[in-house]
Design a protein that fits this description.
Layout: E1 12-16, H1 20-26, H2 31-40, H3 42-52, E2 56-63, H4 71-87, H5 89-94, E3 97-102, H6 110-122, E4 129-137, H7 139-153, H8 164-168, E5 181-184, E6 203-206, H9 216-227, H10 237-244
Parallel strand pairs: 1-2, 1-5, 2-4, 3-4, 5-6
Helix pairs in contact: 1-2, 2-4, 4-6
This protein binds 3-methylbut-3-enyl trihydrogen diphosphate (IPE) (2 copies) and magnesium ion (MG).
């Protein structure tokens, strides 16, 4: 089965990369080994999305709730993030990848913040695909920060004047299309405070495959499944079929 770049290709894929810990535990390895293995597969998937013509790939790397994990696991995850920016970014940049980090970046160590800014700046004009890394991200945080920033930009305005379209401009994903296909690996069927607003009409794909085992074939399987969905956006199926002709 191969996926062609067609009208049914999702423009924006978002992935909850879950199952690293269990992948390692099944092999009697420390959980951190699972994180390392999980992060090593990211580059290939980004390149494959770019090849297929997907324009936005958002990866959930670290949630606002993940700070509550054991300190050594949190520091491994931070270390991998730094390593990623150091080692993988130059090849991704060469492949035309634009990097954007969304989340409460101010919560990270200053060194990591500097690296994030540098990687974003170095890739800002790339156009093949936008890789969005959600780090210290929470969907509820995103909505609240958007309201605060809207209010700061319109100090005289009252909340009555706030529209959905305006608020969307203050979300961390401003300017990007909403999520078309939301994938979660690792068997759980929940959103875990990911892109709550932006996934309002996303097609949800849950797979038992653990993140370190999620490869190009698995990705194409998800995209193929997406291509079979009828996205009705509130219409009846008759209306949908008429609109499609
Ligand atoms: C996802 O894998 C990675 C992060 C949350 C950072 P997990 O670490 O949650 O793996 P499981 O769910 O424990 O297997
Ligand atoms: C979601 O995975 C967060 C990331 C993948 C970064 P979790 O493993 O933290 O989610 P829960 O706790 O099972 O809901
Ligand atoms: Mg998990």
């Amino acid at each position: 089965m191969t996926v062609q770049a067609t009208a049914t290709l999702p423009q924006h894929i978002a992935i909850i990369m879950d199952g690293n810990g269990r992948w390692a535990q099944q092999r009697h390895l420390p959980r951190t080994v699972g994180h390392a293995k999980g992060s090593s597969g990211v580059r290939g998937l980004v390149e494959h999305c770019a090849k297929l013509g997907v324009k936005y790939l958002t990866l959930f790397a670290f949630s606002t709730e993940n700070w509550n994990r054991p300190a050594d696991e949190v520091s491994t995850l931070m270390g991998l993030f730094v390593q990623y920016l150091e080692k993988e970014m130059s090849s991704l940049a060469a492949a035309g990848v634009q990097l954007k980090v969304i989340g409460d970046v101010a919560g990270f160590a200053p060194e990591l913040q500097t690296r994030i800014q540098a990687a974003e700046k170095a890739t800002q004009h790339n156009q093949t695909i936008t890789l969005v890394v959600a780090a210290n991200y929470g969907g509820q945080w995103d909505v609240v920060q958007a309201v605060k920033n809207w209010q700061a930009a319109h100090p005289e305005a009252s909340a009555d004047q706030l529209t959905q379209a305006q608020l969307a401009q203050y979300l961390s994903t401003a300017g990007m299309p909403d999520v078309d296909l939301l994938i979660r690996t690792g068997g759980e069927q929940r959103i875990s405070n990911f892109l709550l607003w932006q996934s309002a009409y996303a097609e949800l794909y849950f797979t038992d495959v653990l993140w370190p085992d999620f490869d190009r074939v698995q990705l194409e399987k998800a995209i193929y499944w997406y291509g079979q969905r009828q996205r009705r956006f509130g219409l009846t199926s008759d209306q949908f079929l008429k609109a499609a002709v």
